[in-house]
Amino acid sequence: MITTEQYFGKELVSPEIADNAKILLLKVNTFLELYSKAHGDREVKMTSGFRSPEYNKTIPNAAPNSKHMSGQAVDIFDGDKELARFCLQKVRLLEEYGLFCEDMRCTRNWVHFQSIPPRSGSRFFIPTLKWAARLKGPLTLESL
Q1: Which CATH number fits the domain 4-134, given the four candidates 3.30.1380.10, 3.40.190.10, 3.90.79.10, 3.40.50.720?
Q2: What's the pLDDT at 129?
């Protein structure tokens, strides 16, 4: 369970960003609870929560308009890609909870969740044109 204290750290944010994060964390925590139970009460760990614009600029390859800055995205550690596999197997749950994921072939050891659709509207989206040029074929369990 990711708390708002963990998500924000010591950052002070606007009421709008705080509300966005509450919505995000409700959705993500509900999804992660099911994941954890399906995998023997596996612990989940957030690797990136809220980012101020200043902090976001220091993150290599971070999107300049990252949803982390608006309280609408979170990254969860996934060293063995089990969470990624679970997401691919539970697309209906992602749809039900209104969650979208960055294509897991673009992330080394985390799953990026966001609570608003990307420009493409895809449930699993490719974050940049650079990544789009590198990826071959659709995202599948085998392609992870």
Answers
A1: 3.30.1380.10
A2: 86
Tokens of 22: 């509450």
Distance between CA atoms of 102 and 123, rounded to whole angstroms? 8
- Distance, CA of 97 to CA of 143 (rounded, Å): 25
For residue 76, what are the CA distances in angstroms to 49, 82, 91, 133, 135?
Answer: 9, 11, 17, 25, 22
pLDDT (0 to 100) of residue 128: 87
Walking along the chain (144 residues) 10 residues at a time, the average pLDDT comes out as 94 96 98 94 92 94 93 97 97 97 95 96 93 91 92
Structural domain boundaries in the chain = 4-134
pLDDT in the model for residue 120? 93
